[in-house]
Each structure stands twice: as C-alpha cells, then as structure tokens.
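Changelog-adjacent note: as of this version, every example in the card shows the full chain rather than a window. The one below runs 272 residues end to end.
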Amino acid sequence: PDVPLLPLHGHAALRQRFEDAIRRDALPGSLLLHGPQGVGKQRLAMWLGQRLLCTGPDPKPCGSCQHCRYALAGTHPDIHWYFPRPRLKDSDVTSADIEDDFREAIADRLKTGAYAPPAPEHAIFVATMKAMVASAALAPALAARKVYILGDADRMVVQEGAEEAAGAFLKLLAEPPARATIILTSSEPGALIPTIRSRVVTIRVPALGHEAVDAVLAEPAMREAIAAVGVPPNLAEQRRLAAGAPGSLLARGEWADALARARRMLESASDG
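Full-length structure tokens:
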C-alpha cells in the first residue's frame, strides 16, 4: 500500500509495560486488549507485533529494519491481522481463500490508514478461526516468531457443528506455540465467551489524553476520513465528540445517516 499504518499516538505507559515484559521474557502468549471503541487497540496490537519482530538497535521498535518496514506497511508475512469480514460465498472455503480475502481487506484499510469499524453484519467466522489455527502450526516465514491479531474478537461466530474448529482455536489460545503471540482486541469484552476470557491475560487500554487525541485528529488521513462521515471541522467539537477515543468518530457515518433520516421525517411532517 502507498500509505502505511497511521502513526501510534499515546499509550506510553502501556507500551512501557509491554517493553518491560518482553525484556523479562514474561509477555504472555495470549493477550486481550480491551477498552473503548476507537481508542487504538488494534493499532497498539500492531505496534506490539512490530516490537516483537524488530531486529534493529534499541530503542525498539527501530522503525527502519526490514521487519519494522514490512510491519508499518501492513505487509509483514508473520503478522497476521484478522477482523470481522463478510462471509465468503463459497461453501468450501479454504485457508488460502481466507488469507487472500484478508490480504485484500488489509490493503483496503491501509489505503488511508483511517478506517471505519466493520459493518454490523460482518463477523469472524469459523473459516477464519480454522485459517488462524492452520497458520499457527507453520514456522514463521521471515521473522523469529509470528504474531496473530484478532480485532473485534467479540464478533466471533461459532455455529452449530463447528465445535471441532472452536476447540482447536481454544487450544491455540491456551497453549500458543513457543514462537507465536496471540493478541485479541475488543470494546465489548463481556460478549466474549467465558472459555476464551479464561485463556487470555486481559489488559485494559484506557482513553487517550488530550495531546494524543489532538495528534491523531491532526493526521491528514484522519482529518479526511472524519470529514467524509460528516463530523464538524471544529477541533474543540471533535475533541469533545471523541471523548478520548478519536477512532470512534469514524463510526459516525451511521450516526449522520440516522440524523439525516430524522431530519427528512421532520421536514415531511412540517410540510403537512
């Protein structure tokens, strides 16, 4: 992609906590990052993936080694990023089909780096979980380890008859391979099934402070994306609406649609 991931702003205390754990070789194999929608949980997970694979000098991630460059471009073969998607039509979906679909979806997200949350009907289906389990059994392609990021993990759908796939996924969470780190993110952790929550170490990602919010809102791609969904251009108003979670402004397209519909109803009523 032409435009890499948006820079990560804020979360300094959490980044330091991860850094300390990595240096002590004490980072858990399976993590759940939970916090408000739009606070940057998936971007933080991508940062952690980059930090784990970086081979450059301290302070890590260096941003310039081969692994960092690929990670920042969203194209590192050992950082696997999954999130809710439409169900693939084909009844016999292979892991290769899933990987192709996500390659396209990630490239789409990285056209600007500022993306809206998944549509309500999108989900993480069994085929995605199977692809993740199959991939985790393979050796890393380029780095010393692999990182799996499962965004909006509460949108996992385990349908009837898929107990085997769900069981394999739970086993992977409970006992990730020595060279793999699994990071789930969710703004609705209570919606995760208890068998998942019991297998991950949960870490709360707090709202961002004013400075970090302003830095995110100043990113050109972010400015363009929030203007496109009808958010007022006034910075003070944007800051108030964001409430420490600037990414939540990208969900306001639905809010703007609802407002327009309400306005049309009012106008038609007042026109008699």
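Structural remarks: The chain is about 45% helix and 10% strand.
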